[in-house]
Amino acid sequence: MSNNAETLLRVENLCQYFGANRAVDDVSFEIKKGEVFGLVGESGCGKTTTGRSIIKLYNITSGNIFFKGIRIGAGIRSYQVAIEEAKKEYKEKIASASPEEKTRLANELKKFIAARQNDIKKARFDQKNCDKEYSKKLIQEVKEKYAPLLANGDESVKKDYRDALRKAKKAKLATQIQMIFQDPIASLDPRMTVREIIAEGLIIRGERDKKVIDEKVYQMLERVGLVREHASRYPHEFSGGQRQRIGVARAIIMNPELIIADEPVSALDVSVQAQVINLLSDLRHDLGLTILFIAHDLSVVKYFSDRIGVMYFGKLVELASSDELFKNPIHPYTRSLLSAIPLPDPIYEKKRERIIYRPLAEHDYSVDKPSLREIAPGHFVQCNDAEFKKYKAMLK
How far is CA 369 from CA 68, 169, 372, 373, in A? Predict the structure, then answer.
C-alpha cells in the first residue's frame, strides 16, 4: 500500500455512549484505500462498538464518520454540550459585566448557539440522507450513460437502462461497507439456506435475475474455498471454519470497498484461523479490498495489518505501523499487551516477564490532560505534555 493512497475512511472524534457508559470516547483515525488497519485491545475496550458505529448499526453519540469523502455518520452530543457550556460561561461573565458588555456577550452567545444549532441540523440531515444523496448521484450517472444509447430505440438497451435505474434507486453508500462477524453461527440465519444467506444482499439491492444471482453465489462459494453443492445446505451442516467462509462470501458478494472483520478468527481452532486469515489476505489482493481488522490476538494482527491502533477503555492510546509498534511500543498499555504474547519456546516462556498496566500509577491527568500526539512520523500516542517529553526521549 502506498503512503500517498487516498483516504477511504476517516473517523473524527467518534463517541459512542450508552447511558453513563462511554464505550468509545473521542477516537480518531484514517484508513487508506487498500490498507489493512488493525484495531486491538482487551475485551470490552470498544473495538467492536467502533466497527458497528462505522457501519451504522448504531447512531453515533458525537463525532463524524466520512466514507469516500461523504459524511455517513454524525453525532450531535458535542454540539449540545458546547451550547450548555456556553450558557454557563455567559451567566458567570454577566454577573460583573457592564450593561454594554452584557449586550455584547448576549449577541455573541446568540451567534454561537445559532451556529451550533446549524451544525446539529446538518449532522441530522447527513446521518439520515447520505444514502439518498448517494442514490441521486448514481441515478444521474445512469441517465448520462444511457442517454446517447437510448436514442437508437433498442429494446435490450431500454431493458438494461430500467434495470440499472432500479438498482441505482435502491443503492446505499453503506452497502459498500460490509462486516464479517465474530461468531459465525450466530450471524447466520439457521432457517435460510447458504444460497439465500449469500444472495440476500443482492436481492435487497435490486437484482431480480435468478440466473445471475445463482451464478454469483456459486462464484463466491468457490472463491472462499467451498463448492456449489453447499448452496442448498443450512448453516448447522457446516464446521466453524466453513461457516466463517460463508460469512466472508456474504460480505464480498456485494463488491464492497471496505470490510470490517470483527474478530473473524477468535471463535475458530488455531489451524482454521490460519486458513481464514490466508483467505482474507488473498481476497484483499485479488479484489483490492480495504480491511478494518478487529482482534485481541496481537500475533495475528502483526502478520495481517499494515497499521495498528491500540484501544483501552474506549480510548485510542497508540497508533503506528505494524513494524513500528512492535519495535518501539511506547504507551504502557501497549507494552503490557505485547508482554502477554506467548511464544512456543519453553526457555523464553520461563524468563518472560508480564508487564502489568496500572493506569492510576502510570499517569497523572488531574491537571495536564492527555491527547493523541505524534511522537514520531506516523507514530501517535495518547499522552500529556510531561509524558510527551518522556516518550520522545524514550525513542531517542
Answer: 33, 48, 11, 12
Name which of 201, 257, 292 is nearest 70 in CA terms. 257
For the record, the C-alpha cell of 96 comes out as: 460583573
- Domain of 56, CATH number, reads 3.40.50.300
Query: What is the chain's length?
Result: 396
C-alpha cell at 76: 450531535
C-alpha cell at 10: 476517516
Q: Residue 207: inside a domain, yes or no?
A: no
- Comparing C-alpha atoms, which of 245, 260, 243, 240 is closest to residue 48? 260
Buried b (16+ CB within 10 A) or exposed e, 216-226: bbbebbebbbb
Query: Residues 340, 342, 344, CA angle at the centre, nearest 5°?
Result: 170
**Residue 34 domain-assigned?**
yes
d(CA 51, CA 39): 9
Helix H, strand E, coil C: the string for 270-330 is HHHHHHHHHHHHHHHHHHCCEEEEEECCHHHHHHHCCEEEEEECCEEEEEEEHHHHHHCCC
> What is the tens place of the pLDDT at every residue in 85-111?
999 999 988 888 888 888 999 999 999
Residue 324, domain extent: 1-68+258-263+295-396
Report the interhelical angle of 240-252 vs 194-205 (nearest 10°).
20
Half-sphere exposure of residue 266, counting CA atoms within 13 Å on the CB side? Answer: 18
Query: Cα(335)–Cα(328) distance, rounded to whole angstroms?
Result: 9
Question: Would you say residue 1 has pLDDT above 80?
Answer: no
**pTM exceeds 0.70 for this model:** yes
Task: Confirm if 58 and 65 have CB atoms less than 8 A apart.
Answer: no
Cell of 391: 516518550
| 378 within 8 A of 324, measured Cβ to Cβ | yes
- Judge residue 333's burial from the number of C-beta atoms within 10 Å of its C-beta, 0-12 exposed, 13-18 middle, 19 or more buried: buried
Cβ neighbours of 72 (radius 10 Å): 23
Number of domains, the chain: 1
Question: Is there a domain that residue 81 lies in?
Answer: no
The reply to whether 326 falls in a domain is yes
At 3, the pLDDT band (50, 70, 90 cuts) reads low
Residue owning grid cell 445512469: 142
Residue 18, exposed/middle/buried by CB under 10 A (0-12, 13-18, 19+)? Answer: exposed
pLDDT at residue 187, as a whole number: 87
Contact 86, 117 (CB under 8 A): no
